[in-house]
Structure formats: structure tokens, C-alpha cells
Write a structure and sequence with these properties.
Shape: globular
Helix content: 10-25%
Strand content: 25-35%
Largest sheet: 8 strands, mixed
Number of helices: 3
């Protein structure tokens, strides 16, 4: 954890890119392009923030918090993501939004488990929902006590940061989504696969931590 904090003390400018292997490639096209492929007539205008919450485990190894979305018919069902969501009026955006959403989704109580915001990663255009997502890096000095909100979170995942360093494996996945055949990279975490915007953010975090 000490090395992680040292590398995040001053973020590089510009930030290194996430690995290209994460990006989705279209292998076969359906009759109509889904929303996440089509270019929008207007740029996304809705702001959102995600919390990259780092903390040391009992042995001092750096971990971060991810969530599994509940199963169902909504577009992101079952996917792995960060605590986070859209900006509300009155939020101190982006950190205030990320911390509020983490409180709502996983019960993060910053009075009980204080955190420090370290910086931001590159904004991600989440085309499927029209949000511009700001990843907020924060650290807790001990493993936080968390409780999932069943409406938004099926499971809280506490994952070692080493799974996302440049040396970590990226699994190539081919799958059909919205009638389109895709190939994309995903970080394997046990039975889970972390891809899309979450994978891109974690890939950039790993690039920052693995840089010289």
C-alpha cells in the first residue's frame, strides 16, 4: 500500500492510457446499431462520478472496492462496476458525488472510516447511458465497513490492486450484445470479468501504478 500511495501522490500529466486490449471491437453488425455504438447527435451532457476506493488489508496489500450489479433485465445487469452515479444538485462534484453514491450503494460512512481524495483519472464517455463519468481516486486508512444496498448491489468485491497492473492478464472475450458480435478485453477476477468503462478505468489506474 505504501508504494501505491507514493505513486498516486503526484499523478502524471498527461495520464497514461489504459491498455488497448480493453477496447471493444465489432466483429459482426446487426441491422441497427445499438445506442452504445452510434455516435450521438449531441454530446453527452449528464455528469457522473465513480469512486475508486483504495485501502490496505491486514497484511498491508492495497485493495479496492468494486460492486456487482443485481441480475435483471436492465442494461448493466450483473456487470462489475465502481460505486458511483449521476450528479445531484448541490453535490460538490465530482468527489462529493462519488462519496454520496458510495454511501448510498455500499454504506461507506466517512465519519467512521475517513477517506482522503487523491485525484482524478480521465473522464470516460459512457455512451450507453449518455454520462460523462469522472473517476475519483480516494484512500481509506483501514478496511472500511461496508453494507450493500440490495436494490443497487448484489455483492461487494474487495479486490487486490495487483489484478490491474500492467503485468496482470487480460482475457479476450467474444460475445453478442444487442445483436452485435463483439470482441473485448476483460480483467478476470475469480468468476467475474471486468470490462467496459470499469475495465478501462482500472486499466488506466494500473498504468499509473505500473509507470516509472
Amino acid at each position: 500500500m505504501t508504494d501505491v500511495l507514493a505513486r498516486l501522490a503526484t499523478l502524471p500529466d498527461p495520464l497514461p492510457a489504459a491498455p488497448d486490449a480493453i477496447d471493444a471491437q465489432v466483429l459482426g453488425r446487426g441491422a441497427t446499431a445499438p445506442d452504445w455504438v452510434r455516435l450521438r447527435d449531441e454530446p453527452a451532457t449528464r455528469d457522473a462520478a465513480a469512486l475508486i476506493l483504495l485501502y490496505p488489508d491486514a497484511a498491508g496489500e492495497a485493495h479496492l472496492v468494486l460492486t456487482e450489479r443485481p441480475a435483471g433485465t436492465h442494461r448493466h445487469a450483473g456487470q462489475i462496476s465502481f460505486p458511483g452515479g449521476k450528479r445531484d444538485p448541490g453535490d460538490a462534484f465530482p468527489a462529493g458525488t462519488a462519496l454520496r453514491e458510495a454511501n448510498e450503494e455500499v454504506g461507506l460512512d466517512t465519519d467512521r472510516d475517513p477517506v482522503a481524495v487523491l485525484g482524478l483519472l480521465d473522464v470516460v464517455d459512457v455512451r450507453v447511458s449518455g454520462f460523462l463519468l469522472v473517476p475519483v481516486i480516494a484512500v481509506a486508512w483501514r478496511e472500511p465497513l461496508l453494507t450493500p444496498d440490495a436494490r443497487e448491489v448484489a455483492e461487494i468485491l474487495r479486490v487486490p490492486v495487483r489484478h490491474f497492473l500492467p503485468s496482470a492478464p487480460i482475457e479476450v472475450v467474444e460475445a453478442e450484445r444487442d445483436g452485435w458480435q463483439l470482441r473485448y478485453g476483460a480483467f478476470p477476477i475469480g468468476e467475474h470479468r471486468v470490462w467496459s468503462a470499469t475495465g478501462r478505468i482500472l486499466g488506466q489506474l494500473g498504468a499509473v501504478l505500473g509507470g516509472r
